Amino acid sequence: MSLVGKKAPLFSVPAVINGEEIVENFSLDQYLGKKDVVFFFYPKDFTFVCPTEILAFQEKLGEFEKRGVAVVAASTDSEESHLAWLNLPKEQGGIMGVTYPIVADGAKTVAHNFGVLAGEWNYSEDGELTFEGAPVAYRGTFLIDKNGVVRQETINDLPLGRNIDEMIRLVDALHHVEKFGEVCPANWEDGKEAMSATKEGVAAYLSKN
Question: Which GO terms describe its cellular component (predicted)?
Fold first, then answer.
């Protein structure tokens, strides 16, 4: 089930902030009424595609911040694992230098509630609880507005890395809609013409494009 148009699931779990400090009760509630949030899941620490994405978000962090958007990552690893990876230099496969929060979803409840857990629990014929699939998160990305409502989501399979510039474009589109009340057509980018959500508006836009 898609979360778009619904309140983002609540959670309070450990996280590493500022690349060095473990906090025990991290929640997205701190951004309500203040900032939009790009909340993204990645499968696992100390892997291969994941650091490229995490570092790419860090490289673009200034672009998100100047738009009033917080970036928060999450995986099903522990906070200690996150901290160890954050202390490992890039040339050794680490993510040293990342400053945005990284949530530790050890119980896998956050990933489950956001619909990105790459497997599920089931009972065997003997009544034993088992896990089928991969006990990690898919590459889920959620754009959450200041009211805590999910406005956009994408979920990639484990081998498929994200385009960070596309997330910035979606943030710009959301802000344009909120500011001007217009809708953003296909391939819209900041600075390009949008259109009114009327037959006349669509006709006028299509006649010029």
Answer: cytosol
User: CA–CA separation, 115 vs 143, rounded Å?
Assistant: 14
Per-residue pLDDT of the chain (209 residues; tens, 9 = 90+): 899 999 999 999 999 999 999 999 999 999 999 999 999 999 999 999 999 999 999 999 999 999 999 999 999 999 999 999 999 999 999 999 999 999 999 999 999 999 999 998 899 888 999 889 999 999 999 999 999 999 999 999 999 999 999 999 999 999 999 999 999 999 999 999 999 999 888 888 888 88
User: Is 50 designated active site?
Assistant: yes
Q: Which residue has the tokens 């009760």?
A: 25
Q: Which domain holds residue 195?
A: 163-209
| 155 lies in some domain | yes
The answer to whether residue 8 is domain-embedded is: no
Residue of 15, 37, 50, 111 marked active site: 50
Q: Tell me if 4 is assigned to some domain.
A: no
112 and 177: one domain? no
Whether the Cβ atoms of residue 55 and residue 93 lie closer than 8 Å to each other: no
